[in-house]
Structures are given as C-alpha cells and as structure tokens.
C-alpha cells in the first residue's frame, strides 16, 4: 500500500498541468526602421517590458542611444493597434530623460485590462519622439516571444512529490 501512495504522489507531481503566473516579460528592440513612417536614423534602443495582469502593472526598463533629431521630447507606450499602424498613447513615460541617449525605468500601476490585453496580444509599441521626428525617431513593437514564469504552487507540488519519493526510498533502505 505504501508503494502505491508513493507512486500516486510521484504521478501527481510529474503529470500535473503546470499553472502559469500572470507575469510576462518582453524584450523590445527600438529602431528608426520600425517607426511609422520608417526613417534612416542610426539611433537604437532596447527595453524590457514586464506585464502583470493580476496586479495591473507594467514595468519598463529602457536604454537608448544616438538620437539624431535632437533631445527626446516624449516617450511612451501606444496601444492597441496592429503592427505598422499608429495608436493612442496609453502609458506616458513621465520623467523620461531629455537627451539624445539615456536610460529609463518605471513601474506603472492601475493599467486598464484592455491595455494589458493589447500589450499581451502584440498590439502595442514603445515610441521615442523629438523635434526632428515628431511622430517618433525610434520605435519598438512589443512583439517579442514572452517568457512565462511558472506559478510557485506548481514548483511546490513538484518539490513535495520529490520529498515523498525520497522519504519512501529512505524507509526501504
């Protein structure tokens, strides 16, 4: 009977369907060719956008360099439109550096469900604007393959199954 319970614990641990937390991170590359209309700017940037659709937060860590059209005048996330289209600003980057190169990070709270769904569906983009490129010198569509983080409860269940298996082996020895 004890062997059956160990087998059952292991089966539950290894055959359970993993649940996923609602935290998804995207890696975003920004360039002039992604702007609408595209441009030949040599400026570039990259960002990590992390979405938590339970806490309704969006975190952004961004770096950019070489803006050719002057200091940045604004930066933000636009949503909810297809790639290559332009859409409304939904998350303005307050305190964004007014320079041609720099870094920025912020966590935005109280983001609406429709905007979070738009970001998760690949219908959002980051844009950095300046005087020479009022429509945006560099842009990055938030389309990167998301990295889904396993829910801690799934890992705990797997750990319990491993402990039960180890305990059963120790009793036999």
The beta-strand count equals 9
- Report low-confidence residues grouped into runs of 5 or more: 4-19
Largest pleated sheet: 5 strands, antiparallel
Envelope shape: elongated
Strand content: 35-45%
Mean pLDDT: 83
How many H/I helices?
3
Distance between the termini: 17 Å
How does CATH name the architecture of the largest domain?
A: Sandwich
Our Rg estimate from Cα atoms comes to 23 Å
Please provide the ordered H/E string of secondary-structure elements.
HEEEEEEHEEEH
What is the strand arrangement across the widest sheet?
6-3-2-1-9
Under CATH at level 1, the class of the largest domain stands as: Mainly Beta
- Count of structural domains: 2
Considering the chains and any ligands shown, give keywords for the structure.
173 residues, alpha+beta, Immunoglobulin-like, 2 domains, five-stranded antiparallel β-sheet
What does this structure look like?
Strands 6-3-2-1-9 form a 5-stranded antiparallel sheet. A 4-stranded antiparallel sheet has the order 5-4-7-8. The chain contains 3 helices and 9 strands. Strand 2 and strand 3 form a beta hairpin. Helix 1 packs antiparallel against helix 3 (152-172). The chain folds into 2 domains: 1-18 and 151-173; 20-149, Sandwich (Immunoglobulin-like). 25% of the residues lie in helices and 37% in strands. It has 173 residues and is an alpha+beta fold.
């Amino acid at each position: 009977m004890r062997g059956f319970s160990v087998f059952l614990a292991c089966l539950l641990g290894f055959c359970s369907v993993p649940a996923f937390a609602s935290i998804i991170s995207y890696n975003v590359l920004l360039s002039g060719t992604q702007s609408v209309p595209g441009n030949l700017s040599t400026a570039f940037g990259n960002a990590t956008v992390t979405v938590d659709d339970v806490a309704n937060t969006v975190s952004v860590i961004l770096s950019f360099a070489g803006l050719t059209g002057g200091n940045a005048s604004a930066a933000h996330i636009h949503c909810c439109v297809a790639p290559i289209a332009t859409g409304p600003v939904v998350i303005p980057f307050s305190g964004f550096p007014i320079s041609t190169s720099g870094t920025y990070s912020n966590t935005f709270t109280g983001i609406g469900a429709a905007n979070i769904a738009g970001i998760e569906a690949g219908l959002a983009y980051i844009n950095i604007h300046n005087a020479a490129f009022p429509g945006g010198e560099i842009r990055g569509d938030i389309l990167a393959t998301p990295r889904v983080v396993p829910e801690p409860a799934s890992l705990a269940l797997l750990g319990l199954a491993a402990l039960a298996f180890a305990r059963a082996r120790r009793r036999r020895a």
